[in-house]
Task: structure prediction
Amino acid sequence: MKEHHFYSSKIKSLILLIISCVFTFGISYIDFKDENLFIIVMLSLGITLFSFGILYSILLLVRTEPLLTVTDKQIIVYNVLRKPTFIRFDEVALFFIVDMRHYGIKTSSYICVIMKQPKENTNVIDKVSSTVFPHLKGIRYSIQTDILNVKTKVLLDLLNSRIRPYNL
Result:
């Protein structure tokens, strides 16, 4: 049984840490005396947001466990602050890539997982999203590939090679 482990990209985590530190310390040195309440609240939210970015990037930098493991039978997605998610290949119909873009610049990349059987216990959000976006009905999981040390296309090829025996 061949397992493939994918870890967080330390270079991207370091870049996130540097950017978060620059913005956090830059915003914290702004003089708040002559600003109105709205500006003060927005700057405080910015400091809070980028402080969490510092914590998240430090967690990614010191992490020694993989973020993603692909075995012959399943995918294990290890979240940084939550329990791992297990996706069995015999329940998967297909994988595909989704790129998020802002003004034509790719900001993030995901591999979406379409399951053979839709989710049984649907909540209100799932019901509303399936009526508004019926083409996204079978998508239950997505794997963010930006923070991994692997190219999205290479990971997609590996995942598709694992579901072929189950789809014959």
Summary: Residues 37-62 form the longest helix (26 residues). Strands lie at 4-6, 68-70, 74-77, 85-88, 92-102, 105-115, 139-144. The longest strand covers residues 92-102. Residues 131 and 137 are 9 Å apart (CA to CA).
